[in-house]
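Support request from a user on the community tier.

User writes: "When I paste my structure tokens into the form, the page sometimes reloads and wipes my input. The last time it worked, I copied everything first. Here is what I submitted, just in case something in the input itself triggers the reload:"
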């Protein structure tokens, strides 16, 4: 069995990579993937804690987080495609959404 500290450390590392991707990168697609990476890190933490406690609550919460992530992916990618068609760029610095 994998120790809880290993899984929580891996979750923290993945979450940190996601935060760094959102803060450092200016490409909207990379920022979007970084947010998905952070959601997966939180899912790993929920599963680790749930397995440690012997409870199914972590898996139930992960199911809801995955549902929200799927909806976010569908809506978010639609918005990104719409922005790209109008502006022909996906760099966050080049976008001012108040001016169409």
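"...and here is what came back when it finally went through:"
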């Amino acid at each position: 069995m994998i120790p809880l500290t290993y899984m929580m450390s891996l979750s923290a590392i993945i979450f940190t990579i996601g935060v760094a991707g959102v803060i450092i990168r200016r490409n909207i697609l990379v920022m979007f993937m970084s947010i998905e990476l952070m959601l997966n890190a939180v899912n790993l933490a929920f599963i680790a804690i749930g397995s440690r406690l012997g409870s199914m609550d972590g898996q139930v919460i992960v199911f809801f987080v995955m549902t929200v992530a799927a909806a976010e992916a569908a809506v978010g990618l639609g918005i990104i495609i719409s922005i790209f068609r109008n502006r022909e760029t996906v760099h966050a610095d080049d976008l001012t959404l108040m001016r169409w």
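Agent notes: The reload is a front-end session timeout and is unrelated to the input. DSSP finds three helices and no strands in the chain. The radius of gyration is 17 Å. Escalated to web team.
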